[in-house]
């Protein structure tokens, strides 16, 4: 069948097959191709070797001779592990063979030498079979050194184009590269181990020949050094620096300048650096109270004992002193506890030192430092701070705040008083108390703010007088005349009443009137004001007719008291007597009847008897009329005249300046029950 041509009818292929795909025979596991035995044939058909499962035994078993696995009898075959392949450049990466060699170099036209022996190192790199030649550096040799031959593959035989291999290198052979012949004398330990492990026997080690030029040079140097004079070195600065680096002697010292004006007793820290014999003095925090911060009093430098000593030839104006101009510096043996040292004219007393300093003096200098020096610690006298006088700039409170702190803070205000009395003012009418007649007609309104105690003065305009009016004084506190400017006293509500004089910047204002709120405020706080001030405001308001409701309320209260004290039989007579005392306007209008406590009150001047809300009770004065006046009015029918007198007490001509009634006049006085 194999020799038949592939023609129709010469093969046994299934013409009815529709699937012709080839089964997978390779797989990739972790990136590696692995062959896999196909489990089926073309198009998914079963293979011929699997057809045995369709040939069962007569007894229903399986043909054991075909499916028998010999591994069950003989076991698995142990395969040796295959070493992973490692490329040559990976196996010998960074591995180098080192050989010691020399070559002879001719020196023509020289009277002292004819040749030189130069020592080199031959390096062979196993990763790429390249070679290079390096020459170690010799100080002051007179010729260039370093890399003599570049790294690369070197020809062993140019005719055959053979290159040097590590198998060609051994001790005692000559290697020619670029016209130089290098003789190998030795190699390092790794090279020996590598060559011996690869079956190469090494020759015996040879000694390097001496270089005649270098021998003569060393002999001449020794002879010149022998005739050189040796002077003793007083101090080796490098040795001292390396030995005492970071070792510092610490001393506590004090500077006493109390003998001069403004001087104080101040403590400092003195440091002596053993590495270079320098001194520095450090400021302490307790010395910086009230002074500018500066960390060091003396920077790190050598401290001369006599700083005034200066040679005549030294230009001290232009140049600083050097070691040549200073005869002696301070040393550790000069720093003893209890002694005084001079630091550029200032005397410092050494009080104490630390433990390292004491140990250094005992071991190095064989000296024992004394104990700490105790000073008489007298208590510091606190300076007496006097408050400076007021200069007139701003307010005294602002000036005092700038005295208490460098950054002045605004004076504290009574916030509670301000919030309670905000937008509350006491207003008074004022005139100028002056000798100029043109100022007599000027009228002012003085407002006292209860929130912050400031006074504002506004001037009223007068027609055809040339006075425009407006603000005369902006809100500010006004001093009382004759007070101390450093502790000023200001005008308050108790200083303002009718008849009082207020001095504002040399202007004298006389209070001649007040509004009703001033009187109400006086009634609410009678302990603040004097009786004279309350009487003056009350008399003015009575004269102006602003206390009608108070008079009516006082009359009703008096009527109720009389009604409660007297019996019902006397009520008719009292009613008849008080019927004539009806209070009315001062212009002669019809008086309003006094309302009975049993009847509802009727507003003044209203014809209809319409009830109205009774005004809130307020402690106010009420008139008290003597009995003789009541009897006289009862018999003479003069109630209107007596009522008018009760309203116009201050303007009544029957009153004298001393407040006593004239002879034969009617008298009405008021009693304050508040």
Automatic annotation (TrEMBL):
Pfam families: DM10_dom (PF06565). Residues 93-199, 245-365, 422-526 form the DM10 domain. Its main location: cytoplasm. Gene3D superfamilies: 2.30.29.170. Residues 583-625, 648-674 are annotated as: Disordered. This is DM10 domain-containing protein. It comes from Anopheles quadriannulatus (Mosquito). GO terms for cellular component: axoneme; mitotic spindle. It is found in: Cytoplasm, Cytoskeleton, Cilium axoneme. Transmembrane segments: none annotated.
